[in-house]
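User: My instructor asked us to take a sequence, write out its structure as tokens, and then describe one feature of it. I'm not sure where to start. Here is the sequence I was given:
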Amino acid sequence: MKIEDNDFNKEFYSTQFKIRDYFRQKSKKIIAQSNELLSDHPTEKGTHREILIQNYLEEIIPKRYGIGTGIIYGRSDTKSKQTDIVIWDAINYPILKSLGHNTFFAETVKIAIEVKSSWSSDTFKDILLKTQAVKSVVSSSRYSNHAQRLALLEHYIESGNNDVGFVSKKPLIGMVAIIFKGGENFDVCKFSELQKNAIDMNFPDLMLFVEIGKIFVKRFDFDEKTGFPISGTYQMYNANEDAFLFFTCELLRLISSSSVDFDTPFFLDEYLIFDNFFFENNLSYHEIPFPVEPMRSSAGGFGLY
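Assistant: Let's start with the prediction itself. The structure tokens for your sequence are:
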């Protein structure tokens, strides 16, 4: 599609490219800093990279959200494993702090993030196990009062979201994985049927391979009457040097999708024309369908839209 050459479009593209260049520089800086540590000790390298991601998120994530590390506890004796980074609602909910460890309540948490230095089959198994643990955490099933549910309904109507099931159901906690090195051969086109069937409740909702610039995203289609997810696609983007920009757009959407906003929701990707990025940078994209677990209709749907 040809874009008309007028003052508005020139200004819009100028803003768009400034945003793109900002995130490209951020990406280069984080990758360079991730390789600065002289120690070869795996724990020290892992901690170093976790801190880099925490620092980046503190610059980007709205201040209403806290960023910490610890274990997420839910009802019915459910809990996550030790989580590298937890994004939680720091304005409306408490956490229990202790030296080097935090206890988060399921109702407070929006996103759990696992940070890995390198990709391997063992790394992937660990990510899957931690995703399963996070998805199993049980929170209070309903918003506490009508004001919250009304605010949530208005939020979803304004954002064009049809998932009205969220008005009475708490969404599952979002799971994100960030892997610095490797992952070149991890490809949705190579998934087995067993892997496809496991995507919904076992794979992260969002996954970033930092150095190779690859992103994986879950998306869902919803039933118009019930608002519950009925099918999903797992999408892979080879975003290259724009991977951090794509990742940040999706992360902000993931956080917003499980939050009640009393102001107009903000979506960074509305300042961008992704189709233009794909065309100009020859970026590739693939997706595969996956079945949605029946438990979602009772636990509340969750995903990127």
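For the description part of your assignment, you could build on this observation: Strands lie at 65-73, 83-89, 96-98, 101-105, 109-118, 174-181, 206-209, 214-222, 229-238, 284-290. Try explaining in your own words what that tells you about the chain.
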